[in-house]
Amino acid sequence: MRVRLIAANWKMHKTVDEALAFWRAVRGRVPAGVEAVVCAPFTALHPLAVERREGDGVALGAQNLFWEEAGAYTGEVSPVMLADLGVRYVIVGHSERRQLFGETDETVNKKVRAALRHNLVPILCVGETLEEREAERTEEVVRRQTAAALDGIAADDAARVVIAYEPVWAIGTGRTATGEDAARVARTIRGVLADRYGAGVAEQARVLYGGSVKPANLSQFLAFPEIDGALVGGASLEADSYLQLLDAAN
Ligand code: PEP
């Protein structure tokens, strides 16, 4: 049985005080059947880790990591540093990082491997651009990104990876994929897992949808058993809206 996951991606938003206010508003209010993850900016991770208490029901996530453990990599944050704070999840390969910061299938793979080595759960983002969608290349792009990100990863670890299907044209635009489209791509992702690792891993791994998810449209995706939750940007910034998403997923 896969547990539904609602992951908040705050992107480059929230001061420490704002992050703490959100946490205090949400903690202890997470419905029992849902996993809640807040992927905060690096600057808020330590204060949130200090604030976090047993029973809060919210896990901490980061939005990026570097693949080395330590060294002369100015400006980077390592998996060791994240694990040290009690961070459990880390977004890898978000389309904003692929498009604005030059991340490639190869660097995404290095980051997924580094996260797994340190017991962090990667939330691997895959998805096509509008141009690729219009050229009917969605399945090919998603297949390629998923397979490349999992290169060199053993079955046990692959089953722990959360894969978020995020069509690039739907992120922050107010446009969403249809539930049917998202479910079809989720099946494609599970197909990649099944080909490489067998049906067991394909059944175990969680696949999320992301792209302009809001409390009012979440059910259109969760109606499909292939979809195990959502990665949410804009609608995760307000505690009330995030709580509504958690309730809708329960
Ligand atoms: C995201 O940041 O991954 C995302 C899906 O953003 P939004 O929900 O704002 O489209």
From TrEMBL:
Which GO BP terms apply? Answer: gluconeogenesis; glyceraldehyde-3-phosphate biosynthetic process; glycerol catabolic process; glycolytic process
This chain's protein is named: Triosephosphate isomerase
Q: Which InterPro entries match?
A: Aldolase_TIM, TIM_sf, TrioseP_Isoase_bac/euk, Triosephosphate_isomerase, Triosephosphate_isomerase_AS
Residues that bear Phosphoserine: S212
What does this chain do? Involved in the gluconeogenesis. Catalyzes stereospecifically the conversion of dihydroxyacetone phosphate (DHAP) to D-glyceraldehyde-3-phosphate (G3P).
Q: Where in the cell is it found?
A: Cytoplasm
The superkingdom of the source organism is Bacteria
The active site annotation covers H94 (electrophile), E166 (proton acceptor)
**What reaction(s) does this enzyme catalyze?**
D-glyceraldehyde 3-phosphate = dihydroxyacetone phosphate
How is this protein organized at the quaternary level? Homodimer.
This entry's Gene Ontology molecular function terms read: triose-phosphate isomerase activity
Instruction: Give the binding site residues for substrate.
Output: N9, W10, K11, G172, S212, G233, G234
Q: What is its main location?
A: cytoplasm
Q: Name one GO cellular component term.
A: cytosol
Gene3D superfamilies per the UniProt record, alphabetical: Aldolase class I
